[in-house]
Structure of Mesoderm specific transcript:
Amino acid sequence: MREWWVHVGLICIPLVAVYLHIPPPQLSPALQKWHSSGEVFHFRGREIFYRDSYGALGSSDVVILLHGFPTSSFDWNKIWEPLTQHFHRVIALDFLGFGFSDKPRPHRYSIFEQASVVEALVAHLGLSNQRVNLVSHDYGDTVALELLFRTDQNRTGHLIINSLCLSNGGIFPETHYPRLLQKVSHLCFLHPTLQAHVESYVFGPYTQPTDAEFWDMWTGLRYNDGNLVMDSILQYINQRLKHRERWVGVLTSTFVPLHMIYGPLDPVNPHPQFIRLYQQLVQRSTVTILDEHISHYPQLEDPTGFLNAYFNFIHSF
């Protein structure tokens, strides 16, 4: 009964907000700095936000970061600087419909289109002939698998993938359990208190974001009326199911070096079901299971552990 009333609130409050024309929140200094440090390029007439930082001298290595749902490239802010000390270039983008990128509506959002966005960005940056390392999270994991499929199939315009590091993504429909509140969370992106209530489900009890960090997540979602496209983007859950053979198939057959960084307290991809299936099916991959209190956002909840795991992987081949 109590959950039913929560759902009523999730529906009613945004409707009231729309009719009252509540303006989007102002960017915090942290988000403003992130935004001002980025650029945009055009993909099929849409603006896509990205950041491209030059880092380590004497290195030619490139890493591309693919964020999750429903947030943005700002998810990587806690590990950005350490990555620039290791890689020649560190690149991240906001997928179409997310963060500071355009959020067209109506629009049929798809994993296939997002993969094409990444390929277009790589071409825009002149990196089409450069080997790149991919690091992905959640929704970004599935985009990465589509990019991997195109690489293994030698599709025109594909990336040259040097390595792939996944993290806490629902890559197996049979072990993916999105919380009910997450499924309807697009309804509450006009109200930060309700957004915080939803997001708290996917962080560990000792690794909850601060109020300021929650506000930044909500602001990124609300930017360019992003709350109004979340229901369209959520179709990716059905796409994962429909195209399981394609994406899980390439994961199990590729010879690209693979690693999984996993927060075991994740309610969406629960332990041990998820990681057991991963290790069973993806036997060429190495795995890092972080501390037991780390949940769905390991790069935010344990940035040091995430970085240590990733650097150990990169140095292993």
In short: Residues 184-190 have pLDDT under 50 and may be disordered. The radius of gyration is 19 Å. Strands lie at 39-43, 46-54, 62-66, 89-93, 131-136, 160-167, 258-262, 286-289.
